[in-house]
Amino acid sequence: MALEAIIGLEVHAQLLTRSKMFCRCSTDPSAGPNTVVCPICTAMPGVLPVINRRAVELVVRTGLALNCSIASHSIFARKNYWYPDLPKNYQISQYELPLCRDGYLDIDVNGQKRRIRIRRVHLEEDTGKLYHTAGNESRIDFNRCGVPLMEIVSEPDMRSADEAREYLVALRQVLRYIGVCTGNMEEGSFRCEPNVNVRDTESGAKTGISELKNLNSFRAVHQSVDFEIARHTRLLQRGETVPRQTRRWHPSDESRGGYTDVMRSKEEAHDYRYFPEPDLVPMRIGDDWLSEIRAGMPELPQQKRERFVSQYALTPYDAGVLTQSLEFAQYFEAAVAACRAGQVAEAAKRVSKWLQGEMSRLLNETGQDIADVPARPEHVAELLELVEEGKLTGTIAKEVFEEMFRTGKPAPQIVSERGIEVVGDASELERIVDQVLADHAEVVAKVKSGKTQSKGFLVGQVMKATRGQAVPQIVNDIIDRRLGV
Amino acid sequence: MELFHRTAHELAELLRRKELSAVELCDAVLGRIEAVEPRVRAYVTVMADVAREQAKAVDARRAAGEDLPPLAGIPLAVKDNMCTVDAPTTCSSKVLEHFVAPYDATVVARARQAGCVFTGKTNLDEFAMGSSTENSAFFTTCNPWDLERAPGGSSGGSAAATAAGEAIIALGSDTGGSIRQPASFCSLVGLKPTYGRVSRYGLVAFASSLDQIGPLTKDVRDTALLMNLLAGHDPMDSTSADRPVPDLTELLGRDIRGIRIGVPKEFFAEGTDPEVANAVHAAIRQLESLGAIVGEASTPTVSYGLPTYYIIAPSEASSNLARFDGVRYGHRTSKPVADNVELYEQSRAESFGPEVQRRIMIGTYALSAGYYDAYYLKAQKVRTLLKRDFDKVFEQFDIIAWPTSPCLPFRFGERGDPLSMYMADVCTIPVNMVGIPAVSLPCGFSSGGLPIGIQLGASYFEEPKLLQVAYAYEQSAGFHARRAPLGASCGGEA
Ligand SMILES: [Zn+2]
Description:
The structure holds 2 protein chains of 2 kinds. By secondary structure, chain A is α+β, with helices and mostly antiparallel strands. Helix content of chain A is 40%, strand content 20%. In chain A, strands 2-6-7-10-1-11-12-13-14 form a 9-stranded mixed sheet. In chain A, strands 5-4-15 form a 3-stranded antiparallel sheet, with no helix packed on it. By secondary structure, chain B is of the alpha/beta class. Chain B has 15 helices and 11 strands. An 11-stranded mixed sheet of chain B has the order 1-3-2-4-6-5-10-11-9-7-8, with helices on both faces. In chain B, α9 packs across α11 (354-367) and α9 crosses α12. Chain A binds chain B through residues 39, 42-51, 78, 80, 82-84, 87-90, 140, 271, 273-275, 278-281, and chain B through 81-83, 89, 91, 96, 99, 101-103, 105, 200-205, 207-209, 235-239, 315-316, 318-319, 322-325, 327-329, 340-341, 344, 364, 367-369, 372, 376.
């Protein structure tokens, strides 16, 4: 048996619109229960939906980012099923003629490039939330009901849990870059349902597809897909049939590891009785509108990575790290632009090093988002210039940066408040070096005769004269220049 | 003639000239309701207090010298499937028996804005499913022309109220003939506008792609005036047409010489009552004598109208009515239930009447996996063919003319089985399937004194021409001037 996993992903992403999909209610997730509702999103008798144009634009934007063909003519459909969090007892969704289809997303899995095809991207509305309280009581919050939701369906092109996770990471990055979704899995604004089965490539035998639910982290996606692949493989090897099922993931706890169990079998599958939504007219995405949306497309992660390599002479690795989030990349570029002196590549290298080093460390420690950090990119540039000019040592600069990170004060202010003696300008340092050289002529002679280890003594003397404020590397450079070694 | 029997445009003139106050008119109509409502039973809810307040407000505005809209102060009855904030909206169903909507339907808001006086909410076949008001969950409305007969349906309450003088004008909704057939049965003018001409926002949906709100009035000019108020784009209804609204009174009185009128032969099928056929043919001859050019038209696919309607309308209804689940509003079972499914089943079984349940079942079946292509999809294809048929007819003709109902107003219970009731709509349904406007207007009476209506249709958004022809006929024939014999004095009926 030569077994291969077949994985496809269905992703639901809440769109970043101010108002709901078919009414004017706010999408504010922090609003109190049932405070952002109206007759339309609670399905009062007689109400009608009106399409949120912005939501359509965001889906088209996503389609363009995922290399899809965009429908010039697209319709909504009713998906009929009964549940108390769905007040109309049908969901307005898309079935035939979705907005986008036949695209792809290139991902990088352990250094290998893989192309994952996108089957369709469509627009629908979210449901409300049901809360089961103690006793035999249920409560419904309709705030989320009618929030624009985008469904992105991949082809079953992934072959491992790693690939599934990388696809999901790359997809979320794209959605965040183009500003259509916060991508927050824990809060449910970005949800994933993998379809997993296993095939024997020799005999062609296949297991029934498992549709996995209740995954609210990348880790859960990875673990549940791995679990299912193993389960299907085991059963297929035993010659048992694996029925098509919807299965729920249970994360691991003290008593046992993570596992899936059956929610619904195929026999219980819904018949959604789809039909075209008669309350809405077909959407026409004309060339003018499409070019307008296209013109508003921001740079995508892949494009940005490539540009960082060529424009800033960064390594592909550094470019990848710096572009992981749009905010981080923007911070980087703003800081480089604020550097006055020297070549762009030099400045980029310095900024890159600090952002990947100190900045990332502090972000991790504090759990902050770079966009919320009080220290602005120009402050970072200013600090790095002080270091570059030899006015601050690396150790002190790190301390200054940490305070800057916390308070947003500019480096010169921190320095003066802390009473840190900044070595004046470069000529001041050169004067001190010249003095040291003059005072220790015998050592200078030793160095010139080839005993370079004696240079350390001279550097030490300069450091002493500056009370440790000078940058040893710079002092070294000046001494080398003076002595011509 | 008593005030309550006069037309809106006559009364509007009296109000404008301050020869009559809105309160006096309101009292006259409320008095009439008190006198005849026990026999007619047109209203689910009479809004006497609201009406008096509205009438007072209109008088105050007029006294203050305000220039008021044409229908300010005119008593208007509203079919009880249009939402109103100040009275229940029941759809004549136990499901919504005590439901008060949190908002006004767009047409209600417009009428309120224009100073109309709301007499009340009128009876209908439950959720507008029927042709007699016999399917109302509360009671049956009687035809003012013969109290033992149906006023038609589903807008039977609005038609009976207007014909009995319990309202001056009324709003109806028409999904398969629900304005035109009661207009015909009660000797009124009833217009089903072009689909999209009038906002459906706030009309409790039966079949979304077919429903349209329209007027029920005593003459064509009143229909034109009420349509001027109702028509126009509504940002709350995406299917409402965003195009200019012509003044429909403009062409009234223009002669109709040279207007081409087609008579679709398929609409005079074998089942047509000979008295109806004779009256309609006579009306067509009269139109010819007024200068219209009459010819035979053909719509070969029209016989498929009825069966395809009974796929599409129930399909949409099955989905539209799914929201009545007892969770947020409406009837909820008081029996203990084990889960959601039982809550739905029990609440709905207790509160939907048999006809509504039948249509939900038909629609659910037609949309089910494995049947969708054979039923719903095929029905939509036939609908396209029907549209093509009518498009071709309107290349040749400006107006088409045929009976509104193949039969005279029937006695209660006479059409007990659903199929024969469905057949009553055979002449009106194709219009909804295609989406064109059509008006029913009085064209005579049977030997027994029962009203007969002729139906005129036109191409999309050709309401001005449609009413021009209707008006020309009405004025020359004069049937619109007759009022139902039901008088304050003629008590004793059942
Ligand atoms: Zn809302």
